[in-house]
Specification:
Blueprint: E1 5-10, H1 14-24, E2 31-37, H2 40-50, E3 54-58, H3 66-71, E4 78-83, H4 87-90, E5 99-102, H5 107-120, H6 129-140, E6 147-152, E7 155-160, E8 164-170, E9 173-178, E10 183-186, H7 190-196, E11 201-205, E12 208-211, E13 215-220, E14 226-230, E15 237-239, H8 245-252
Parallel strand pairs: 1-2, 1-3, 3-4, 4-5
Antiparallel strand pairs: 6-7, 8-9, 8-12, 9-10, 11-12, 13-14, 14-15
Amino acid sequence: MSQVFKAIVVDDEPAARRLMRSLLAEYADVITVIDEAGTGREAIQKIEELKPDLVFLDIQMPDLTGFEVLEQLEVKPNIIFTTAYEQYAIKAFETFSIDYLLKPIKEERLQQSIDKLKQFGRLNQEVNTVSLQEIIRQIQAPKQSTALPIRTGDRIVLLKYENIVYLEAQDKYVFIHTIEGQKHLTDQSLSALSEKLPSQFYRIQKSYIINKERIREMHRHFNGRYLFVLDDKEGTRLTSGRTYHDGIRTEFGL
């Protein structure tokens, strides 16, 4: 008689848990779902209490990642990761002899996992969570953009960050000044733009963000302010806001 695996389904999305239960109903002779969990902490509690043979474990959850769940477990059940990561990236998991299901889960791929369980009785002995988290960190790392897209009528102009000297807020609009002396208008707020800009850009007062790589000189000004001379054709001079004093000192190591 073949082994029947007691399983827990862990996913923060109720619809995903329902789908997994529905798919596993076809394999009742191999897998019995004994419970489910919607958070990482709930998963730890139920796994420790119920000691399942198998856990279908989502990687991305609001409170804990699937890896953080594994790190805190005393019991060591079989793990099948469920993830929405791209196929090419998740291939790295195969290095660790860990099974995974890519969302949306396909019946034939689930069949492969279950066949593996039936054949070997165990999917993985040890999970190197540190190495796996590093892989995921690299997958998740945002791609470094090199230009800021600005819509001009029906056109989208890409302004290379290296050519932007500073951004200036005027009323409801923002002007972007380039090294060539050009001035581009955008209706995006300075705050919204600051979230898109890389770390070389720094806000020195409520109306100005400057490119730190385009600073020619800095001078102490009165009332705790600083004067920035920029590296553009006009040698633009901008004064920082008084409330930005401490942040500027920290940012520039003054």
